[in-house]
Fold this sequence. Notes:
This protein is mainly α. It is 61% helix and 6% strand. α24 (482-485) links the parallel β3 (473-476) and β4 (490-493). α6 (95-115) packs across α8, α19 runs parallel beside α22 (428-455) and α21 (403-422) runs antiparallel to α22.
Amino acid sequence: MTALFRLFADDDKKRVFWALFSLTLLVMLIGIGMRSPWPADEPRFVEVAREMVMGGEWLFPTRGGEFYPDKPPVFMWAIAAVYWLIGDLKLAFLIPNALCGLLTVMLVYDLGCRLWSVRVGRNAALLLLLVPQFLMQAKNAQIDAMVACWITLGCYGLVRHFVLGPHWRWFFASWAFMGLGVITKGVGFLPLLMLLPLAWYRWQMVTGRALLPHQAWRWRVALGPLAMLGVIALWLVPMLLAVWLDATPEHQAYMNNILFKQTGERYVNAWHHIKPWYFFIFSVIPWLWFPLPLLAIAHGKRVIERIKQDPVIAILLLWVLLVVVFFSLSPGKRNVYILPALPMACLAMAAIIDGEQPRRWFEGLVKGVLWVLGAVLLLAGVLALMHHPKLAARLADYTDDLTGIGMMLLALGGVWLACLWWLRKQVSLLNAGAVTLVGWLLVGTWGYMLLDSMRTPQQLMQHTAETIGEDAELGLIKFKEQFILFSPVSVTHFSYLASVEEQERNAWAWMNEGMTEGASAPKRYLLVPEGTTLSCFDMSRGRSMGIAHRDNWLLLDDQAMAASCDAPKRVYRYHTDHPGHWLTD
């Protein structure tokens, strides 16, 4: 590790590049292949990707055979492409975001080197690797890390052109990456907000303060949107043509949902994740963006001075502010929404504090918090080994044996505190980086393997398959995508988007049809979470298959069916043949 420190202390751009590249690659690859997809979003995207490869339908993503209209397809395409190439879904599903995380870090490093110095680029990249929100997203299979990468590329291209340029290839590339971001998740256009502070400083130049190259603002700037629209058209045009040619209600509903409900309507009139306007400022940035807020407070005067002195820092921070304001105006908010602003925030902060001495109170506070966290990990490990009643009660929905968790927490806490002691004379952020690395090494290997059975319904679905037989058919009501993804038997569901009442009526009709097909037909069963209110089935006749995701799941057979059931308003029936075979391939 001492040799690594010396490499990062070097001013040679290539040597620092390879040291940073190696460190980032190591962090991104930790845990790949060690776990399965975990809720909330990973099983959905992975099941969609699996169905793309198995069914050959890449233009209209499906989950359990039903169109999935909530997100454009690029992220699912990426997982499906890696799965198709290597044939191992457990290995493939984390690779796209790992590569996007690696690319984002290296873009920040390169831009810092070009704008200021190798030291600033290195510090900016290391800051980004230290921020919890960035690593948490880059190391899972949610969509936000990928869209943040495309947005960072868009910002990179605009800065290369308007600040360091003119560079017309990067200018048009930035618009193209914005288009790629739009068909990954609609907000890929966010780099456009940077044009506002860029235009302001261009106006300042016109009035006598030459801050940015005027050659970058020639008439060709107006052609940028064509590059973005061209990339969007690569998906949009085939999709619209397919909808026009097929003209089914399902295709029409998919088009309307993906183009309107999940974009403008979701932003203006969000129907879930409702948070107050100050959610990002007080509930996300202070802890998920550590250590940036503390650094800004510790070097407050320097921040103001550098913003006045350096227009590039001002442009970057104004863009970050505009992104936060943009998402704050929408009633629907999740902490990951502001992730795309994080790389430029780290870059600006690294430039601001370059050459500054650490503040004593900052060093004491950060080191103190790290020592407390290490002690908490040790204490939690001891309590887990003792099966403390309160801790056991909190984890009862996942496991009744806390021994493995206790041993892992003890090991993590011990290594954590040992690192802090070894590096006690180093600056606090180096301490934080070291414990972050060893934390991911332990959690991403031992922890992933230990927690995998707790975070998936694999054991429950395997028990269900053994109970009903592999040739039986299983229906699902009020479920999440992971129950399809991990099912060894064929699964039928009755529209994920339908009400529970409509799902139940369709399920009763499906099971009734199975009874009339004769003894030679596969027997049909229904899996339902306990506590679900049903009128066409007697839940008291259900057999418990186990607990998964805090619900006890009951298996219903034809003996639990009521004598009759109202007909559904519309017949929904989606079948997936043995989806869980990827676990044994």
